[in-house]
Amino acid sequence: MVILGIDPGLAHTGFGAVRFSGKKRSLLACGYIKTPPGETVASRLFQIHADMGRLVKKTRPDFVAIENIFSLVRYPKAGILLGGVLGVIYLTVKQNNIGMIEITPKEIKNSLVGYGSAGKVQVRKAVQTLLQTDDIRSFHAADALAVALAAFYRNVTGVRG
């Protein structure tokens, strides 16, 4: 089984694909989609959609797990922009007939670190330990891999198409 984890963001959308075979886990791909800040929001969203399409074709996931983001009332514009990012990710997933689940940041941290308020360094270290690699430099990629791992630990019966 291959799970593609996504950490959505307009400037950087992290991704991490993990193959699970029994109790074995192996890293397939990770990184982030970076969009140029000088471009229009529409152009940046189109780039995320196109890059996600290529990523899905390359990694061939059985399902996609997305970090369930939220925006505080104090930052409504950020919430609207993230809603656009989620929209193009949902579109890509649906166009490719892949199941999808959303996982909250607290659940991700609890399942990997055992502490719902863990920091980024703790999460990256847990991901590196679980995947037996020290080559994950990007926090965006580490967060996306954490999403994929947490989805697997949750029990994939909650997948919806």
Can you characterise this structure?
The chain is globular, with a radius of gyration of 15 Å. 47% of the residues lie in helices and 23% in strands. The mean pLDDT is 89. It has a single domain (2-158), classed as Nucleotidyltransferase, domain 5, CATH 3.30.420.10. It has a five-stranded mixed beta sheet with strand order 3-2-1-4-5. It is built from five helices and five strands, in the order βββαβαβααα. The protein has helices at residues 41-59, 76-95, 105-113, 120-130, 139-154; strands at 2-7, 12-21, 24-34, 63-67, 99-103. With 161 residues, it is an alpha/beta fold. β4 (63-67), α2 and β5 form a beta-alpha-beta unit.
How would you summarize what this structure contains?
The chain contains 5 helices and 5 strands. With 161 residues, it is of the alpha/beta class.
The rounded Rg comes to 15 Å
Structural class: alpha/beta
Q: Largest sheet, order of strands side by side?
A: 3-2-1-4-5
**Number of DSSP strand runs:** 5
Sequence-ordered SSE layout with sheet pairings:
Blueprint: E1 2-7, E2 12-21, E3 24-34, H1 41-59, E4 63-67, H2 76-95, E5 99-103, H3 105-113, H4 120-130, H5 139-154
Parallel strand pairs: 1-4, 4-5
Antiparallel strand pairs: 1-2, 2-3
Helix pairs in contact: 1-2, 3-5, 4-5
